[in-house]
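[Discussion] Sanity-checking designs against the backbone

I'm trying to build intuition for which residues belong where. Below is a structure token string of 184 positions. I'd appreciate it if someone posts a full sequence so I can compare it with mine line by line.
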């Protein structure tokens, strides 16, 4: 009735590209600082565009365990997503850097012009005095090009990248109850 977790396989937090249909997924493009064995916790999985990433700070305040976030980054949305992710990691809660792995994905016909190597991204800085980028009145590349948001691709990318056997799939705007996964 219950899974036998004694033999579950723990996934390393390594970056790699994977083709899923018409979409390229860069799994663990920006990995979490802390790694979990497959039986140690439950991973909160979600997906988003860059304009909703500010919610990640509230998620990690409530979920002190692994978080897997797939971010849709077609065309020029990639740059804005990267800027937002770096601000979250470098300027907001240290828990974002510790617990959250970011995966990016885009349609093969809307590949970003420039995708920095993951090791270069990890050394990039953010201007923390500028505040979290406000994307509320910005027209995204996705909207300009009338692209549909690939919900299932994002959901599956986050879920398949989770290090733990158990996952808690959710919408990025739905926050878990406080201390469901308590800190150490």
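Best answer:
Here's mine. Compare freely.
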């Amino acid at each position: 009735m219950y899974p036998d977790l004694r033999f579950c396989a723990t996934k390393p937090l390594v970056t790699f590209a994977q083709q899923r249909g018409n979409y390229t997924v860069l799994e663990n493009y920006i990995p979490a600082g802390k790694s979990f064995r497959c039986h140690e916790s439950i991973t909160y999985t979600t997906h988003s565009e860059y304009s909703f990433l500010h919610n990640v700070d509230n998620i990690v305040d409530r979920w002190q365990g692994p978080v897997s976030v797939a971010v849709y980054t077609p065309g020029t949305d990639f740059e804005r997503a990267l800027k937002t992710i770096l601000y979250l990691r470098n300027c907001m809660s240290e828990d974002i850097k510790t617990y959250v792995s970011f995966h990016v994905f885009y349609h093969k016909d809307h590949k970003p012009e420039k995708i920095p190597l993951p090791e270069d991204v990890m050394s990039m800085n953010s201007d923390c005095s500028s505040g979290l980028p406000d994307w509320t009145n910005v027209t995204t590349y996705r909207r300009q090009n009338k692209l549909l948001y690939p919900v299932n691709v994002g959901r599956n990318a986050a879920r398949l990248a989770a290090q733990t056997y158990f996952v808690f799939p959710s919408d990025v705007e739905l926050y878990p109850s406080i201390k469901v996964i308590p800190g150490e």
